[in-house]
Each structure stands twice: as C-alpha cells, then as structure tokens.
Design goal:
The complex is a heterodimer of chains A (about 400) and B (about 150). By secondary structure, chain A is α+β, with helices and mostly antiparallel strands. Chain A has helices at about 5-20, 25-40, 60-65, 95-105, 145-155, 190-200, 210-215, 230-245, 255-265, 270-280, 315-335, 340-350, 355-375; strands at about 55-60, 75-85, 120-125, 130-140, 165, 185, 285-290, 290-295, 295, 300-305, 380, 385, 390-395, 400. Chain A is globular and about 80 Å long. The chains are: A alpha+beta (about 400), B alpha+beta (about 150).
C-alpha cells in the first residue's frame, strides 16, 4: 500500500466522520432545547431555584465523538448533567432525583415528554427533533464552577474531587436513606473530557489546538474540524452500530470504546494509521482475566467501566468479537487499496453504512472540483494520477456533454 | 481554430514522453498523432487505457479503450460527458470557451483532463452524480447546476 493510497483512504474516512456528525442546525436545536430545560428548572417559580440548577452536556456530545444513528428513524442520544448546589441536609438520592423529576412532571411541555424513569436519569423525548436527552440529576460542591474553570485552564492532569459530581442510583440499597452526598456514587465527567481532549490534541503536527474552556462548556463550541482521534472514535462507534444492528443491550458501550481508543492512540494524524494501531492494541489496556475484566476510568481508577460485563451476559464476549471484526475489517480496507474506488465504496458501505459512504465520495468530488478551480489540482507524471502533489496543473476547463 | 502556430507533432510527442514515459505512439504523420497511455486517475483507482487521436487544427479525439465497456451506475445506460457512449469518446472541454487549441500541448491539457474525467466518472459510478460540473446540452437531460451543487446532509 502506497502512502498516497493511505492518504486518500484517510481523506475519505474523514469525510465519513463528517457525515456522522450532528449538523450545525441539529446542534443549535439541541443546545437551544436543553438551555430551555435549564431555564425552566432554574427560574421562578421553580422550587429548584435555591439550588442553582445548571445543565451541561457530558459524554460523546461533549467529547465530539457523537455519531448519528444508523436508522434515519432512530433518535440521537444526548447525555446531560443537571447540577444542583447546596442541597437540604435531609435530601437523599431519592429526594434529589425526584426534585428534578417533579419539576419536569409539573410542566405542560416537559411532563408529556418524560419517558419512564431510568436508573440514574430522567429521559426527555423530543418527537420533532428526533433526539432524546438523558438528564442526570447530581449534587456539586459549593465553588464547583470555579473549580471546573480552574481545572480546564490548568495544564496539569491532577484530578480532585472539587470537580466531582455526586449522582443518584435507584438500584443502590442506600437510595432512599443516605443523605451524605459524599457517600453517593461519584463521577467526574469534565475531568474525563479534559483527559480525552488532551490525548486527542497531543499530536504536535495538528493544524489546530483546542481551547478546553470552549470545548467543555455548558454550550460547547461547534467544531466542524475534529482531531483524528475524535474521527477514529466516531468510525469505531459506527462500525459497532452496524455490527450490532438494533441490539442495544449487547453492543459494546461508547465510553469503553472511547477510553481504550484514547489509551491506545499513537498520535497518528492519518486516520487509517490511527485506526489500524488502535484496533490492534486497544484490548491490551483491558485489565483482569476473562470473566473479571476491568476497564479503568482513567481519572478515577476505582471505577470500572466494564462493571456490567458479567458471566451471565455476553457483553465481554461481544466486545472481543467486535474488536476482532474491527481488526479484520481494517485489514480488508488496507487490502482494498488500489482495487478501484467502487471496491472501496462497497467496503465502506458494508462497514459504515450506505448514506455516509456515498456522502464521503461526494464530498471528495467536491473537494477535487474546488482544488481544480483554485488551480491546485495536478496530474502526476506517469499515470496522470490526480492529486495536489507534483505534476502538471489541471487547467480550467468545462466537461462538455453532447446530446447523442 | 488556433490563433498561433500549431505545435508540431514531434514536439507534442516529446512533451508527452517527458510527462508520460510509458505512453506509446501508435501512429504518427506530419499532422496526425495516435497515442496511448495507462491512467490511474486516483491513488486507489484501477488502471484505464486511453487513446488520443489528434490531427493538427482539429479537436483531439480521446477514447477510453480499456476497459472496452465502462460500467454505468444502476439504471443508467449512457455515459456522462461523452460524444459517444459506445465509442467511449470523452468530451473534455467546451470549444467556444477557447480552452483548447493546437498551439497547446496535449500533455498539459488533454491528458490531465482525461484523468480528471476518469476520476469524476468513478465518483459518478458511486454517487450517481457528475460532480465535475460542465456544460451539457441535451433535450432529455438538461444541464442543471443546482442538482450538481446539491448538498447532502
């Protein structure tokens, strides 16, 4: 496989990643929706006003690794936290969860949108917008916002509990009783986001750096360009979604894929090289033995992201099956080099879906046309291969079509 | 057709040979040249063989000779931007715009355009759309720029 072939495949993979992105329009609609929820929870006459509720995205929407669902009919899934400060001393996890839930239920708008109660979240279904939001009620310390800002601005990787959130879990025995939020489940979603962005933007030859305060904000900035690692994670997630078509319970979860991909990342800015390296090496960051696997939360090693892998379910087996298939499929991509764009397209379609694959080739064609118009397109010596390297400039011209 | 002195055939051949050393002169007279070369339009494309049949002060005729039958997208029987689907003769430029005349070198214009035609042909096969723009005059399939520039989400 030549460098030029690898580069072209990476350009096409990047375009697939772009086609998997939430569009700017959808993004604006989503952020407007959750800001409205935030306002409803925070302002008079909301009983929550005293606890300064603040809504922020977490998970893939924050990491820039969200992918649109395979089916056009399926919903986008947005994970949000709803932070409350200064909870009354007698509030349990149950009280906290329901303080948020009751406020939502009492709304003529949000009440009817509520799905059945989740283990840790309330889910709002937006029928028109084709998305739903998982709202995670949680408690934060006084001074949390300042601590968060300081953490995002600092270059060190120290993680402290000042940026931790305390979450409720109705499957826990102390759900109805424990009032000390320091004893509730702990999470640190923004420290995790920082960890991820620091790795994604580690390659020194990236054209852009990232301002963490913009990326990890209540309304994160919309980025059209993404780091190679973000694109690779998107491709891996879509590959999983196609493999586990509709099997929501058994498919490997995104946080495990994202964590292992970041751990295994070799700073390659070429997507195919990065994908190949990650696919080959990601399982070496899983600890433990079969039946007792551990995928550590990088910023909270006591948390195991694979805690739902149990001998009685096939989650562990499915994860390894998926990685195996990913490795085989990356090798097939490499083997398809030089076999014709149509062969590449057939493979892309199988691995990532028809719509995004075709969109990728279309975007590629548009790029070529723009490059020709800008006088940057060349035909290389020998086989006249079109590109932007050394060669004869492709002069302006108009393909002509004749009525036969 | 041309405004200046036409490039003599031997000069055309020497410049073609400089850029495309594997090209083959099939026939040569004082005013006419038949030349063939393999083209790989993009790094991951397969190889196509083209033939240029050129007579000074006439339009260069460019054919895809291998494969002898170019595939079409499903449901389409005619190639895009050709003079003739069966002969696989490519339409590479619009004469009234003066994009080509015999004072120019085939190696600088016609060969890169043929390679670019093949690139957009491959993308047409995949997407069903001709993404290279151009000018089309046909009563059956009128040229519609809005369709060509349509964006997918």
């Amino acid at each position: 496989m030549t460098e030029e072939q690898k580069k072209q495949i990476s350009v096409l993979l990047n375009e697939i990643g772009k086609a998997l992105d939430v569009t700017k329009t959808e993004y604006d609609q989503i952020t407007t929706s959750y800001k409205a929820v935030g306002t409803y929870l925070a302002e008079d006459p909301s009983p929550l006003k005293a606890y300064s509720p603040q809504i922020r995205p977490q998970g893939s929407f924050l990491f820039g690794t969200a992918v649109r669902p395979v089916s056009e009919d399926a919903d986008l899934d947005i994970d949000l936290v709803c932070e409350l400060t200064r909870k009354p001393a007698n509030w349990t996890q149950w009280s906290t969860k329901n303080a948020v839930g009751n406020r939502l239920k009492s709304s003529g708008v949000y009440g009817p949108m509520l799905d059945k109660e989740g283990k840790r979240c309330w889910t709002l279904k937006y029928a028109d917008g084709k998305y739903h939001m998982d709202v995670l009620p949680c408690i934060v310390n006084e001074g949390y916002s300042t601590a968060l800002e300081r953490m995002l601005a600092s270059s060190d990787a120290v993680v402290t509990d000042t940026t931790a959130i305390r979450i409720t879990d109705r499957t826990r025995p102390d759900y109805m009783t424990e009032t000390d939020s320091d004893k509730w489940l702990k999470s640190n979603p923004f420290a995790l986001a920082k960890w991820f962005y620091n790795i994604a933007y580690r390659p020194t030859n990236l054209q852009r750096t990232i301002d963490l305060k913009e990326a990890v904000a209540p309304v994160p900035k919309y980025y059209e360009t993404k780091a190679p690692l973000q694109r690779v994670v998107q491709l891996m997630k879509r590959h999983r979604d196609i493999m586990f078509d509709g099997d929501e319970d058994d498919k490997p979860i995104s946080i495990i894929i994202t964590t292992l991909a970041a751990r295994a990342y070799n700073d390659a800015t070429d997507l195919l090289k990065a994908l190949q390296h990650i696919a080959r090496n990601m399982t070496s960051y899983i600890e433990g033995t079969p039946g007792h696997r551990v995928v550590k939360n990088p910023i909270n090693p006591s948390e195991n992201f694979a805690d739902r892998w149990k001998p009685e379910n096939n989650k562990e087996e499915n994860f390894y099956k998926w990685v195996k298939k990913l490795q085989v499929d990356v090798d097939r991509l490499i083997a398809a080099a030089g076999q014709g764009l149509d062969k590449l397209q057939t493979l892309f379609e199988e691995l990532f879906g028809e719509k995004v694959s075709k969109a990728s080739f279309k975007a590629y064609g548009n790029q070529i046309l723009e490059q020709r118009k800008a006088g940057k397109l060349t035909a290389a010596a020998g086989a006249a291969t079109i590109g932007t390297g050394a060669g004869t400039k492709v002069a302006a011209h108009s393909f002509y079509g004749k009525n036969e | 057709m041309s405004k200046g002195t036409p490039v003599p055939i031997p000069a055309q051949i020497s410049i073609l040979a400089k850029y495309y050393p594997n090209g083959v002169v099939k026939s040569q007279t004082l005013r006419r040249l038949v030349w063939e070369n393999d083209i790989i339009p993009t790094p991951n494309s397969t190889t196509y063989r083209i033939r240029i049949d050129y007579t000074i002060n006439q339009k260069p005729n460019v054919y895809v000779i291998d494969p002898s039958v170019l595939a079409r997208p499903e449901g389409k029987d005619k190639l895009k931007h050709v003079y003739d689907t069966e002969k696989q003769q490519l339409c590479l430029y619009y004469a009234p715009f003066g994009e080509w005349d015999s004072t120019m070198f085939l190696a600088h214009k016609i060969v890169p355009w043929a390679a670019e035609w093949l690139l957009f042909y491959e993308l047409w096969l995949i997407t069903g759309e001709w993404l290279g723009e151009g000018i089309e005059h046909s009563t059956r399939t009128p040229f519609r720029k809005d369709v060509l520039s349509e964006k997918t989400d």
